[in-house]
What we know:
Elements: H1 2-16, E1 25-30, E2 33-39, H2 46-62, E3 72-75, E4 81-85, E5 88-92, H3 95-101, H4 105-122, H5 131-137, H6 150-176, H7 181-192, H8 197-200, H9 202-208, H10 213-237, H11 240-245, H12 247-269, H13 283-295, H14 299-308, H15 315-343, H16 349-384, H17 390-409, H18 412-424, H19 432-455, H20 466-493, H21 498-508, H22 512-524, H23 530-554, H24 562-575, E6 584-589, H25 596-605, E7 611-619, H26 628-635, E8 642-650, H27 654-662, E9 668-675, H28 678-683, H29 685-693, E10 698-703, E11 714-719, H30 723-739, E12 742-750, H31 757-783, E13 788-795, H32 798-808, E14 813-817, H33 830-838, E15 842-847
Parallel strand pairs: 6-7, 6-9, 7-8, 9-10, 11-12, 11-14, 12-13, 14-15
Antiparallel strand pairs: 1-2, 3-4, 4-5, 10-15
Helix pairs in contact: 1-15, 6-7, 6-19, 7-19, 10-14, 10-18, 10-19, 12-13, 12-15, 12-20, 13-15, 14-15, 15-16, 15-21, 16-17, 16-18, 17-18, 20-21, 20-23, 21-23, 22-23, 27-29, 32-33
Amino acid sequence: MRFCLGFCFAVLFSLGAGPASAEDVAPVMLGSSILFNIADSYHLTARARALEINARIRKVVDDKTLDAHKIDSIVEPGGNPSVVLGETRILTVTDHDQQVFNKSKQYLAQKWASILRARLTQLEPIYERSEATRSHIHPESKAESKPLSEHRVLLFLLQVGLLLSTACICGEILTRLGQPAVIGQLLAGIILGPSVLGAFAPDLFMAIFPPENTQGYLLDIVSWLGVIFLLMLTGTETDIQLIRSQGRPALATSVGGILLPFLLGVALAFVLPETMLVLPDQRLILGAFLGTVFSMSSVAIIAKVLIDMKLMRRNVGQIILASALAQDVVGCVILAIVAALASASDTGMGELLKVPVGMLLFVGIGGTVGRKLILDALRWIQDSVKIDFASISFVAVLLLVSSAITQFIGVHVVLGAFAVGVIISQSPLVGEKVLHPLEAVTMGIFAPIFFAAAGLHVNLTILAELDTLGITVLVTLAACLGKIGGSVAGGHFVKMNLWESLSVGFGTNARGAMGLIVGILGFSLGILTVNMFSIIVIMSLATTAMTPFLLKLSLPKVPFSQEEKERLEREETQARSFVSTIKRVLLPIRPGSSRQLSSKLIGTLGQDHAIEATSLTLLPENSSLEQYHSQTLQAASQEGNVALVHRVAQNDDMAGEIILEAGKNYDLVVLAPGQLDARRTLSDPLVSRVARQSPCPLLIVCDSKEKPDWDVKHILLPTSSGGQTSKAVQLGILIARATGARVSAVSVVESRSHYSSTMLADDFKRAMVAQELVDQVATLALAYGVEVETRVLNSNNAAAEILKVANEEDVDLVVLGANLRPTSHLHLGDTVHELMARAKCHLAIFSP
């Protein structure tokens, strides 16, 4: 990686070196782009001279009778060389120009004429005559600001509707054929573009997609939103820990997938015919640009393909994604430097360093202070803002601002959008209520429009010319060879399986959106001709289209390691677990309540996945706050990946305070009434009221008088067919995994004193159900790597049998579920009440 970056910087900096200083020169502009620099003259400063030349260029652009193809350099008798268009003199090269740039006047005239001729002819289709352009060329003029006409709005709505419907239809067809939907969505754009609709019904195509800048910009806005939101969702799907575990192969394939394609791009620029070049004397800059295009990958499309093919959680899928991300970021850095050099030969060091320095600052601040601020803001919005969907609005604003920052830095929206997804995925508050609506809008609207709009850029009709077809094939083969060969070479270096490294090469070979974006940028900078731009677009879409087919060829030959197979099976089982949805826990603490067991229990939850625990200290209204700190410190004794939030509330209505706080998107409330005392617990008005009115599940934790410490070595899980019991079992297994305790799962079938034939058959069915229940516990325990012993018992008293097992086997904790009965007093069932009254161990009672 260091060698690659060092090589790129060395080449590019050598291209940009120039003798002129900023004090001697001023830029000649076309819109916001720098064409070239000029020196001052004997009568005018460099800036004043540049403004005059800008005004002449503006006249050439505005005068439709002038043909920019005829711009040339001439030498008048006894005079200096000039750049002219017919009778219009655009500029004259002076002796001072020759001295400052250390080139002959004839050379400068020819070079400047070539640049003007190329830019004024090549950029006309996408040249924006905006107020910004006028301010550069003609500061005293004012652009008229016109609102969108009704026709443009109507046409925009028709375009979006047509693209979305066609993308959905084509995506459905490709899905039924066993291919990712994204290929069909790209195909929809090609069908609606100049290749099909434009060829067979040109008038209809021109009516729907007129070649008019403002209309095209409206569609581009929707496409950019698709890119941003898609990259954000990619960030939320990315498992940083899993990528780190695949660090060496990801790093090796990233370096190989950048270095070899870049070198091939540079080499290719020196074999292209001059008809494909804007400036024949700048092949090295074109080569650096082609190398950048070849080195990049489209994270958005790769992520979509991986999701469609259900590969995101596989090791090879994470390596592909990690490599693509690294290649995109490094490619964006190189691209920004190439763009700066192409815009002006005298770009300062500060402008060249803006991208890498800005990127390092963004990542550094975003990963530390920025992450904390974002997570704190999400919590504050969730708890304090009353309007609906405030969290979704905040995430959307954050996404747009972050993307704008990275766009300003020069890394485009890739890093900003992805970083937001990674950060918000770490918050327990961004669950289904936030991510599901964003995913629905993105995957159902923005993404199909974005991919279909990308297909509109493809014009396959240029392939009718054999020369252009040959160059297109050559460019595509070079791009594929560089990416796949580089990945295989990098994989071989770290002893990866051949098919695995081939899969990484096939996956990262998709250029997709990034290829289109880079191609448009190169066209706007005057690096690419029209045909070369079309070739890069076709190459980008061809490499994207072939990615799913190549992956389907290689992935069946990538073996599952035993560790990976076990991890995927475990994740599939855990994904169905209720415990995996517990991400925010409320722990009320009141005077006299026991906190040790509940605090330790929350700590064990945090060892499975990141959670946020709020310690809510409850005090009477007029009490002192001196005891608050000692209570907070005790609650902070939790272990595991738990983010602690401490709050204090002074309110005589403590139950009401708990219920109010529980309504702020918590997944679980943990109540600790104290040591086992069934009567006191069941008659406690706070426990009774919270159990009835809590908007989220409740866990009542009772400490044992005989086991004051938290040394859990054996957990008992009584089972029944109720849903609350299933969730309690999942909770108990998670505690066992965190503490290393062994588990006993017991299902008690109550026996009868008298039987009929019908009762015997019914008992047989109940025994089968009981056996199936403990078998399910065993399956879940196996997924979490927990040792479990199962048994089915017969007894006429379930509570007595459970107590017998707990006492004989020295059980430390019993976790069971209970349904709240609709009575005026707290009633959790006879079995639960008897266990609370007679058990010598800790109890954890789950009520949904």
